[in-house]
Amino acid sequence: MKQLDTVQKRLIEEVAGLHDIPEGAYNFRANGESVGRQTTANIDIQTKTDVSGIDIFIKPGTKHESIHIPVVLSESGIKETVYNDFHVGEDCDVLIVAGCGIDNCGNQDSEHDGIHRFFIGKNSKVRYVEKHYGSGDGSGKRILDPTTEVYMDEDSSMEMEMVQIKGVDSTQRTTLAELKAGAKLVVRERLMTHGQQNAYSVYKVSLNGEASSADVVSRSVARDDSYQKFDACIVGNAACTGHTECDSIIMDNGRILAVPSLEANNIDAALVHEAAIGKIAGEQLIKLMTLGLTEAEAEEQIINGFLK
Amino acid sequence: MLELKNITFTSGSDDGNVEIIRDISLTVGDGRFVVVTGPNGGGKSTLAKIIAGIVPCTSGQIILDGTDITDKSITERARLGVGFAFQQPVRFKGLTVLDLLRIAAGRELTVAQACEYLSEVGLCAKDYINREVNASLSGGELKRIEIATVLARDVKLALFDEPEAGIDLWSFSNLIRIFENMRKKDSGRSVIVISHQERILNIADEIIVIADGKVIRQGAKDDVLPEITGTDYSTKVCQKMA
């Protein structure tokens, strides 16, 4: 594996929580090229030949293995689109950690658009963690436009944790999911924007099979002059249950548009949506101040807790 | 020692200014357990909030251990040793009971230390320590956690605004025990409790009756309690529950 520099190491630590080379399968990508890869007996990683990206094949019955695929950009002016396909066999139980860190000290925009597709076999369980992080004080923007597509076979389950807390100037996230009978999707999104940042998050989850279920929950904080749009649609095409929730805190001149929507195409579809936006309640600040925190410290504690 | 000198509080309304606190002066000595009682709307909660800095007084002076704290912020007063338990505790999405106790203690509490405070208020610690302080907790549970946040702090002056409100009969005995423990400890800590409950009034060193924004009676428990027993200022637990 090629040597990573300090900036790249720091980015990898932020997005994948890795200090060192992980156990299990991995593929590291830095500044547009693959810099390290490891496969295991059960997990194979192949470079795509038609477009930039990789195919990850997980053999049926693979249990308790993990795959890390962090991406870092530390040169200004890189724009890339990467296609990663995960083919998860039947009866698997795996952890997939993705994430992208951009450090842009230059004046050109850096952009990484990851298109992830998951094909999850029957009875398989996948936990997916994706973190986005930006740093660098250049005038070039740090842009991440991820697309995630999830195709879930019968009785499979997927838990997605998506986090973007700092430093990404512009993001347009699209997540599409199609669920067969008995499949279960849980999404936990946490987002904080500041400065002039913009973040759009669009979900379309189609519950196509009987007893399929989805729970899509977003918690977000918009500070300074940032803007967020959360647009989550759950479509019930069978006897299914779906829930979507957007819970947001606005601060300073932050703005948020929440558009939760539901579409029921079957009499036995049970769908619920909730959305709440507001500033931090004054009484919450007062309570923490009576415990000895300053107003700014109280705000920080409330937001940290909210986004935990 | 807490001294209030000529405290007034006036609130603006459509009909002009309304006087809520009218020239209250009083002293609470070190290690004293004082219960403030009186009819609803008489200004008791407002007075407690003025002491904690949540509501600024219109005029007057507040002295804590010789320091004038009248112009100090909520945070500064908290750091000088003022603790306040809200009548209606606040909920926090995401913050856990342990987080809140750690903030209160101002240090990295171990789980075992945090559990002590929870056990003290009659909550089985392992069931609660990692729970969020959100709408999933009942009013009574929140109230006990609220009291635990004051216990976790090393305060010189603890203010409790109607601690019994929303607490069931079983935990009521527990509450009395907490107060008795607080006074037993030879800490010199002063405790002010706003309450109508006879059993709380009964463990006071001193009782202050506030009505219509004024102190109408102040004295030792044995002198004041017989005068007010059976009135609205002092209610038996069961009456209030019914």
SSE topology:
The complex is a heterodimer of chains A (308) and B (242).
Chain A: H1 6-16, E1 25-30, E2 33-38, E3 43-47, E4 53-58, E5 63-73, E6 79-88, E7 93-103, E8 110-120, E9 125-135, E10 142-144, E11 147-152, E12 157-166, E13 170-179, E14 184-193, E15 198-207, E16 213-222, E17 227-236, E18 240-250, E19 255-264, E20 269-278, H2 282-290, H3 295-306
Parallel strand pairs in A: 1-5, 4-6, 5-7, 6-8, 7-9, 8-10, 8-11, 9-12, 10-13, 11-13, 12-14, 13-15, 14-16, 15-17, 16-18, 17-19, 18-20
Antiparallel strand pairs in A: 1-2, 3-4
Helix pairs in contact in A: 2-3
Chain B: E1 2-13, E2 16-28, E3 33-37, H1 44-52, E4 59-64, E5 67-68, H2 74-79, E6 82-85, H3 97-105, H4 111-120, H5 125-128, H6 139-151, E7 157-161, H7 169-184, E8 190-194, H8 198-201, E9 206-211, E10 214-220, H9 221-228, H10 237-241
Parallel strand pairs in B: 3-8, 3-9, 6-7, 7-8
Antiparallel strand pairs in B: 1-2, 1-4, 4-5, 9-10
Helix pairs in contact in B: 3-6
Largest beta sheet of chain B: what is the strand line-up? Answer: 6-7-8-3-9-10
CATH architecture annotation name of chain B: 3-Layer(aba) Sandwich
Order of adjacent strands in the largest pleated sheet of chain A = 2-1-5-7-9-12-14-16-18-20
The pLDDT mean of chain B sits at: 88
Task: Provide the low-confidence segments of chain B as ranges.
Answer: none
Report the oligomer.
heterodimer
Shape of chain B: globular
> Strand fraction band of chain B?
25-35%
Q: Which H/E pattern describes the elements of chain B?
A: EEEHEEHEHHHHEHEHEEHH
How much helical structure, as a percent, in the residues of chain A?
A: 10-25%
Strand-pairing-aware structural class of chain A: mainly beta
Can you count the beta strands of chain A?
20
Count of helical regions of chain A: 3
The description of the largest β-sheet of chain A is: 10 strands, mixed
Class by SSE composition of chain B: alpha/beta
Enumerate how many helices of chain B there are, as a single number.
Answer: 10
Quote the average pLDDT of chain A: 91
Q: Could you name the CATH class of chain B?
A: Alpha Beta
Largest sheet of chain B: 6 strands, mixed
| Number of individual domains of chain B | 1
